[in-house]
Amino acid sequence: MEILALISAGIIAAAILAYVLLDGFDLGTGILFPFAPDSRSRNIMMNSVAPVWDGNETWLVLGGGGLMVFFPLVYSVALSAFYIPVMLMLFALIFRGVAFEFRHQADTSTHLWSASFFGGSLIAAFMQGVLVGALVQGVRVEGLHYAGGMFDWFSPFTVLTGLGTVVGYGLLGATWLILKTEDDLQAWARRSALVLAGGVLIAMAAVSVLTPFLRPAIADRWFGGINLVFLFPIPVLTALLAAWLFYTILSDRELAPFLSSIGLFVLGFAGIGISLYPHIIPPDITIYDAVAPRSSVIFAMVGVALVLPMVLGYTWYAYSVFRGKATEHGGYGGE
Amino acid sequence: MPPIDPEILGRLQFAFTVSFHILFPTLTIGLAGYLTFLEWRWLRTRDDTFLRLYKFWVKIFALAFGMGVVSGLVLSYQFGTNWSEFSRITGPVLGPLLGFEVLTAFFLEAGFLGIMLFGWDKVGEKLHFLATSLVAFGTALSAFWILSANSWMQTPAGASIVDGHFVVDDWLAVIFNPSFVYRFLHMTTASYLTTSLVISGISAFYILRGDTTGTARRAFSIAMWGVLVLAPLQVLLGDQHGLNTLEHQPIKVAAMEGNWNTESNVPLLLFAIPDQAEETNHLEVGIPNGASLILRHSADGVVPGLKEVPKADRPPVGIVFWSFRLMVGLGFLFVALGLWGLWARWRGRLYDTRPLKWLAVALTPTGFVATLAGWFVTEVGRQPYTVYGLLRTADSTSPSVAASAIATTLTIFLIVYGGLFGAFLYYLGKLIRQGPSEPETTGETPEAMRGARPGLVVPAE
Questions:
Q1: Beta-carbon contacts of residue A326 (< 8 Å; ≥ 6 apart)
Q2: Residue A335 covered by a domain
Q3: Is A286 helix (H, G, I), strand (E, B) or coil?
Q4: What is the pLDDT of residues B380-401, one digit of tens each?
Q5: What does the alpha-carbon distance between residue B356 and residue B338 come to, in Å, rounded to a whole number?
Q6: In this predicted complex, what is the ipTM?
Q7: Residue A225 reports pLDDT greater than 70
Q8: Structural domain tally of chain B?
Q9: A58, A139, A308: best mutation site toward chain B, by most B Cβ within 10 Å?
Q10: Residues of chain A neighbouring B21 (CB-CB closer than 8 A)
Q11: Predicted confidence (pLDDT) at residue B442 exceeds the cutoff of 70
Q12: Nearest to B123 among A81, A146, A321 (CB)
């Protein structure tokens, strides 16, 4: 059963990471929206993500559905504990999502849906950061139920992780735009990426310094025994990648800044995983306590093994159809 | 403020958000199939009419699809936020079914939707058609899994409760639980029928306004064939579904019929005001032996009554009773529309019968009403259980979530969804006013006709 719990956790982690990276850059594009040079730039920005945002958001549904499959206890406890931030995130994603179609159809109310796109992206990103922070700082559980209040998730630490995620998604969005745009807009994206990369490093440093103080178990994980020796490469890699990110933003490379930003997110994600393991809801519930019955886990894993490679295949294909620079008139029906 | 039961608030919130959501998949499942048909006909015949219809309806499809995506995302998290005990207990059964929906259907739809909407000049015609077909297939597959999950809540099978939660011992029995096939066919047919009504209504509106290009006539004709075939099929499927419910959820059928005592020669009530407290009906008007005949195929057939179970185990009778009548009444109206269309077509007057066109316009949104009414019958009729007979709604809620939090989010949902629905209708109205594009003029069109207002020029055919 142990190995099933471990694989299940791996699948969930992969789905959440895929979500963060993919929806990260399109939420980030939304966060940068009002700061773009002009309305033509905004149309290009929106068109650069319009064909793919829906698929990106599907990973969030997979994350939620996946938790219900593999760790129903976690789905039940975490979502009722984080009732308010989850609801706010969902409302924000509604405003972000409908903005694509409505803004395209609008003549006189374009600014309204631009605001909806920006506000929705910003609040969704912030709430997702808050959720991660709230999980890391721990959840009060008694028996099989959440035992805390409606606002336990709110703390200075979670505000920090929320802001960090906003800046981080902004960086993913800016480096995505370096890849997808040209000329003035690309130059603007490079300048934005530079500022945001600085912000991301500050946020990552602050979170890394504060996290071990949240619970002794986390400090022990990083600094206890010889762990530091094995875990030392993570901060070192992060520093190297950050340097590479700055260098490529300032160079004329187009893909490298995006890939380095993704790399930073992967390392940050790994850091959170290391701090949490074996807990899935610290400090009480481990992945081994929470894993679903064997019959459900195996059935779902067979499905994942058969279907996920196909999903990755055609998602790759869909992205490749829309490779290259985004244009102002993305073309509904090729008009 | 008087203390309000968090269970009632949670039920209201879920009823509202799920009812709002289902409107959009109901349309997109049907429209995706319609678009596949149009593109296939265009590729086969190269008749420009089909392509212009495709490019018009795909805009409405995109609008509705976006609404379906965002309102559906809410639902996938609402199980956990508002129904945490339900999620924990049924997660091992419903989790994989919903997971398979995401993996097999949502990704497929999302992956190829981009190509369908934005890919015309990026991929070839055949590939574009493949994208449309895969999106249509994805919508049907999505219905397959979610209706399997819903049906399992109605007629659970293949799993039992061990250590406080469900454990599955037979996945095939879970997926193909006793009511699944009926519910799946009934709902997908509802989608196609509702879509046919939307298309016939909007096309009839264009014909009434003056259809200069023939696109509206073509669409009206296709949609009226759809209504003619699908409406009677739906009545038949509904009857079979009802008999299946009689076998597995007799108390729900008792509520649908407003029947309190288990007895023979039960009338088919056309009107009544069920009284839950007094366990009787007021102002009954019925057809003698009707219910016995429909459900048991004989006048003295025994129909189960609500008093078979204690008061606490009965669903709210009034809602189930009246929703059922609304659904069935509309269903027969749709059959009548289809038959009238056939009659008019036979006489060669399909496009010139004004009352027929006005009826089609009037019935444009009624497929949604019938679909919602049907869902009210089956969902309210399942009460007081979430998993029929095994898990009570009262034991499914989130113990830690305060009533005030549910009330607040419910209020926000009402405001936000109300606003969004308004915006959706506004942009839908805008698209409908624009209508399908004009055909490429080849120079053969008389000059007077091109600039003229529609309706003044084209004589009735």
A1: A44, A45, A47, A48, A180, A181
A2: no
A3: strand
A4: 999 999 999 899 998 898 888 8
A5: 10
A6: 0.87
A7: yes
A8: 1
A9: A58
A10: none
A11: no
A12: A321
Check CB contact under 8 Å for A311 and B72.
no
Check: CB of residue A280 under 8 Å from CB of residue A286.
yes
Contact A300 B99 (CB under 8 A): yes
- Cα(first)–Cα(last) distance of chain B, in Å? 65
Tell me what the pLDDT averaged over chain B comes to. 89
With contact defined as beta carbons under 8 Å apart, do B232 and B335 qualify? yes
Q: What angle do CA A10, A11, A16 make, to 5 degrees?
A: 100
Q: Which of residues 23-42 of B touch A (CB under 8 A)?
A: none
Contact: B58, A330; criterion CB under 8 Å: no
- The pLDDT assigned to B299 comes to 87
**Per the CB < 8 Å rule, is B114 touching A79?**
no
**B119 and chain A in contact, CB less than 8 A:** yes
Q: Do A55 and B107 touch (CB under 8 A)?
A: yes
Residue A57 to residue B112, Cβ atoms within 8 A: no
- The predicted-structure confidence for A77-128, as pLDDT tens digits, reads as follows 998 899 999 999 999 999 999 998 888 888 888 889 999 999 999 999 999 9
- Is residue A329 domain-resident? no
pTM: 0.90
Interchain pair A146, B84: CB under 8 A: yes
B298 belongs to a structural domain: no
A14 in any annotated domain: yes
- Which of A102, A295, A330 is closest, CB to CB, to B118? A330
3-state secondary structure chain B: CCCCCHHHHHHHHHHHHHHHHHHHHHHHHHHHHHHHHHHHHHHHHCCHHHHHHHHHHHHHHHHHHHHHHHHHHHHHHHHHHHCHHHHHHHHHHHHHHHHHHHHHHHHHHHHHHHHHHHCCCCCCHHHHHHHHHHHHHHHHHHHHHHHHHHHHHHCCCCEEEECCEEEECCHHHHHCCCCHHHHHHHHHHHHHHHHHHHHHHHHHHHHHHCCCCCHHHHHHHHHHHHHHHHHHHHHHHHHHHHHHHHHHCHHHHHHHHCCCCCECCCCEEEEEEEECCCCEEEEEEEECCHHHHHHHCCCCCCECCHHHCCHHHCCCHHHHHHHHHHHHHHHHHHHHHHHHHHHHHHCCCCCCCHHHHHHHHHCCCHHHHHHHHHHHHHHHCCCCEEECCCEEHHHCCCCCCCHHHHHHHHHHHHHHHHHHHHHHHHHHHHHHHHCCCCCCCCCCCCHHHHHCCCCCCCCCC
Cα A160–Cα A163–Cα A167 angle in degrees, nearest 5: 135
Write the residue in A78, A144, A303 that is nearest to B103 by C-beta.
Answer: A303
Out of A75, A304, A332, the one facing B91 most closely (by C-beta) is: A75
Q: Give mean pLDDT, residues B82-103.
A: 91
The pLDDT tens digits of the residues spanning A286-296 come to 999 889 888 89
Residues listed for chain A = 335
Residue B292 lies in a domain: no
Q: Which residues of chain B have a CB within 8 Å of the CB of A318?
A: 111-112, 114-115
In a domain, B222, yes or no: yes
For residue B444, the distance in angstroms to the closest alpha carbon of chain A comes to: 24
Helix (H) or strand (E) holding A64: helix A53-70
**Residue B176 Cα, gap to closest chain A Cα (Å):** 15
Q: The tokens of B68 are what?
A: 């379906």
Question: Domain count of chain A?
Answer: 1
Domain hosting A123: range is 2-324
Query: What are the φ/ψ torsions at residue B281 (nearest 5 degrees)?
Result: -110, 150
| Domain hosting residue B214, numbered range | 6-234+352-451
Non-local (6+) Cβ contacts of A2 within 8 A are: A288
Q: A218 pLDDT exceeds 70?
A: yes
B430 falls within a domain: yes
**Which residues of chain A does B102 touch, with a Cβ-Cβ cutoff of 8 Å?**
58, 61-62, 65
